[in-house]
Design goal:
Blueprint (H helix, E strand, L loop, with lengths): L1 E3 L2 E4 L3 H12 L4 E5 L14 E2 L9 H18 L10 E5 L2 H16 L5 E3 L1 H7 L9 E5 L3 E2 L2 H14 L3 E4 L3 E7 L2 E7 L2 E4 L2 E4 L5 H6 L8 E10 L9 E3 L3 E4 L5 E4 L3 E4 L2 H16 L4 E4 L2 H7 L5 H10 L9 H14 L8 E11 L6 E5 L5 E5 L9 H14 L27
Parallel strand pairs: 1-12, 2-3, 2-13, 3-9, 5-15, 13-22, 18-19
Antiparallel strand pairs: 4-8, 5-7, 6-7, 10-11, 11-12, 14-17, 14-20, 15-16, 16-17, 21-22
Helix pairs in contact: 1-5, 1-11, 2-11
C-alpha cells in the first residue's frame, strides 16, 4: 500500500469516527486506520450516558453543544441510535454533598445549563418506586442516553458515504515526520502520505506518542458493565446512586459501579507521580492487578518494534469483567429498584478507560511535530463528547481554530506546571 490522504486518523472509536465524519463532510480526503474493528474497544463498552451534568466546568460548553448535536443525530445519520432524552440524575446522601451539587448547579447556570435539586418526593416522580437511601438528587432534564456501538458504527457509515476510508486490522506502527512536520504514517500494510495525523487511539495513545518523544500521562482502568434481562419499564433517566444504571427501550438495564481494576504495567510506574493524588482519593475504588496483559506489557519495551507487536497481538482488548463486582451491583439494583427483583444478568463485558491525571481529554494541535492533532484521554466520559469532539477537531484542521475554547484541553498542560487536579463535586 502506498497511498495519500489529507488526514490520517488513528483509531476508529467514537472520537476517531466522528472526526472522520466531519472532515469528510468538509471535503477532506480521510483515511482511518484501526488495528482491530470499528468501536472494538471502549467506544462500544461504556455506559451509554450522554450527560452534561456533573462535568468539569471546562467541559460544560462542549457538552451543551454536544447535546444539541445528539438531539438531531439520528436524523442526520439516518440511523437508530437508541437515543432517549429523559435526563440524568445523581443522588446525594449528606448535606456536604448537597452543598457541593448546589455549588456545581450555580456554576452550570453561568453557562446557561439548567439543573434542578430534587427532594425525595420529586425523585419519586423521576424514578417511580425507588428505594434510594439518600437526601435528594440533582437532575438535568435534557440529558440522555444512546447505544454506544450503534452510534460509532453509524458515524463510520456516514463518513464512508462522504468519501472517508476505513482500514480495519491495519495498525499504525509509526507516525513519520520530515523537518519537524508530520509527513504520513507507516502501517502494517505500508505507508500513507499525509500532512495531518489525528491520534484518537484511546488507551494506546500514550504508548504511540512516546515513539515521537511526547509524554502523555495515561492510566488504564478496567471498568466492568452488565446488561440484564428485560424488566418492567420504570424510567429512562440515566441514574447514579452508588450504582449506575440506564434502562433501554426494550426494558433491559445497563448497570455498573465506579469500582475499577488497574492492570499493572511499566506505564503504571512511569506515570505514578502524576496520578498519586488521584489514586489516594480513589484507592478504595481502584484494585491493582497482575494478569496476562500486565505480564505481556511489562515484558515489552518502548521501541517502535515493540509497539507494533503489542498492537497486532492485542487487536481488540477484551478483558474479563469483574463478575464479583457485577453480582454485587445487580444485588444493589434489586434493593434500590424493588420492581427489578426478577431481572438477572444476561451478559457482561469490560473495557479499558484511558485516564489522564486531571480526567480531562487532550484535544489539541501539537506544535512539535506540526500536523499532529490529539483527540484522546477522555477518562471514561468521552462517549457523550464524541460528536462535538469530531466537529472541533475537524475545525482545527480545516479552519486553523476551533469554534469553542479548547485551552483547558491543551497537551502542554501536562508539562508546563499546571496543577492537574480532577474536578470533584464534593
Amino acid at each position: 500500500m502506498d497511498r495519500t490522504a489529507d488526514v490520517v486518523v488513528i483509531g476508529a472509536g467514537i472520537a476517531g469516527t466522528a472526526t472522520a465524519y466531519y472532515l469528510a463532510r468538509g471535503g477532506a480526503r480521510v483515511i482511518v486506520c484501526e488495528k482491530g474493528e470499528i468501536a472494538g474497544e471502549q467506544s462500544s463498552r461504556n455506559w451509554g450516558f450522554v450527560r452534561q451534568q456533573g462535568r468539569d466546568p471546562a467541559e460544560i460548553p462542549l457538552m451543551m453543544e454536544a447535546n444539541k448535536i445528539w438531539r438531531g443525530l439520528e436524523r442526520e445519520l439516518n440511523a437508530d441510535l437508541e437515543w432517549i432524552s429523559a435526563g440524568n440524575m445523581v443522588t446525594f446522601a449528606t448535606e456536604e454533598e448537597r452543598a457541593g451539587w448546589e455549588a456545581w448547579q450555580k456554576t452550570a447556570a453561568q453557562y446557561g445549563l439548567s439543573s434542578r435539586i430534587l427532594g425525595r418526593a420529586e425523585m419519586e416522580a423521576v424514578i417511580p418506586g425507588n428505594a434510594f437511601d439518600c437526601l435528594g438528587g440533582i437532575f438535568t432534564e435534557n440529558d440522555g442516553q444512546a447505544e454506544p456501538a450503534k452510534v460509532t458504527a453509524a458515524l463510520a457509515r456516514a463518513a464512508e458515504g462522504r468519501g472517508a476510508e476505513f482500514l480495519t486490522h491495519c495498525a499504525v506502527y509509526e507516525v513519520e515526520t520530515t523537518a519537524g512536520a508530520v509527513s504520513g504514517v507507516i502501517t502494517e500494510r505500508g505507508g500513507i502520505r499525509a500532512p495531518v495525523v489525528v491520534c484518537a487511539a484511546g488507551a494506546w495513545s500514550g504508548r504511540m506518542l512516546r515513539t515521537l518523544g511526547l509524554k502523555l500521562p495515561q492510566m488504564w482502568l478496567k471498568g466492568s458493565v452488565a446488561r440484564t434481562t428485560p424488566g418492567p419499564i420504570i424510567s429512562h433517566s440515566a441514574t447514579w446512586t452508588g450504582v449506575a444504571f440506564r434502562q433501554r427501550r426494550d426494558g433491559t438495564f445497563n448497570i455498573a459501579t465506579r469500582s475499577a481494576d488497574h492492570d499493572l504495567t511499566v506505564e503504571s510506574l512511569l506515570n505514578l507521580p502524576a496520578f498519586m493524588g488521584s489514586f489516594a482519593r480513589n484507592k478504595r475504588a481502584i484494585k491493582l492487578r497482575l494478569n496476562h496483559l500486565s505480564r505481556d506489557l511489562l515484558a515489552g519495551s518502548f521501541s517502535k518494534a515493540a509497539l507494533g507487536r503489542e498492537l497486532t497481538t492485542h487487536r481488540i482488548l477484551d478483558p474479563t469483567p469483574n463478575h464479583k463486582v457485577l453480582n454485587q451491583t445487580l444485588a444493589a439494583l434489586h434493593r434500590l429498584l424493588p420492581a427489578t427483583a426478577e431481572v438477572r444478568i444476561d451478559r457482561s463485558w469490560a473495557g479499558y478507560i484511558d485516564m489522564t491525571p486531571d480526567m480531562l481529554p487532550a484535544i489539541d494541535a501539537v506544535g512539535e511535530p506540526s500536523g499532529l492533532v490529539l483527540a484522546t484521554g477522555f477518562s471514561g466520559h468521552g462517549f457523550g463528547m464524541g460528536p462535538i469532539v469530531g466537529r472541533l477537531v475537524s475545525e482545527l484542521i480545516l479552519n486553523g481554530e476551533a469554534s469553542l475554547d479548547l485551552s483547558a484541553f491543551r497537551f502542554g498542560r501536562f508539562h508546563d506546571g499546571t496543577k492537574l487536579t480532577p474536578h470533584t463535586v464534593v
